[in-house]
Amino acid sequence: MDFLLTVLKIVFLLGFLILIHESGHFFVAKLCKVRVNQFAIGFGPTIWKKQGKETLYALRLIPLRWVC
Length: 68
Fold this sequence. Notes:
two-stranded antiparallel ribbon; single chain
């Protein structure tokens, strides 16, 4: 059980670090007037999504990858 909890902590910590990194790309693209069609957290089936003015924001089932 401790091993599983440790693995989950590592997965979410890495996911958080990737989120910060990819958010930097997203904000620089917006500042430079580059169109961003989609910004998704994770991969797999979509859990939640919201359409902005030009960007589709989504939360996916497996939080290990960001799509920009």
